[in-house]
Give the backbone structure.
Amino acid sequence: MAIYKVTVATGDMVEAGTNNFISITLVGSYGESRQTTVSFLFQPGKERSLSVHCGQDLGPIVLIRLHKWRLFLEDAWFCKDVRVTAPNGTLYRFPCYQWLEGVTTVEVREGSGKKLVDDKLQILKEHRRQELAARQEAYRWKDFAQGWPRCLNVDSILELDSNVQFSSIRATNFTGFLIFQGASHFLSGFLLRRTSWNSLDEMRTIFSRTQGRDIGGCLVL
């Protein structure tokens, strides 16, 4: 009997938790475990620990499968990461950092960076192929207008997967920044100006209030 210690962490953002059932399957180079229930209650910023019992040593753990299905009402769950400790003490880390929505199964590779040539197991090669196919299906290009750069083939950002949309926190911060900028330019006389600039120094006095501010990870000059 081989016993694996598993810790599942939920992100700390608003509504990251879920009341849906979450289970896990460990996949090693020698075999895989049975699907084991983690919990049906996850709170933001919290961790859940469990033991996964296997009839034999699974070998190096190369990926995990997270399974989510409804209990009563659907609510999305944001998985931060999963840590697996093997019977010999080896720690495997699986960074997830994505939303799981609906009834779904998500495969997450072990966190060590590897190139295509490093994938010796067929299951890893298949995982990489499926991941590439899914991205090609999700992100298609279209021509918005002649001479313009290519654009995503969607009519609205709401058509994109929630994992690539702005989070509610970033969207709120971005909107707040735009309001601040508009108010700042209004108070400084920029929006009401009816004449041309007299010099570069005059322009610098208008924009100096935002110069060098780090907004949402972008440096505004």
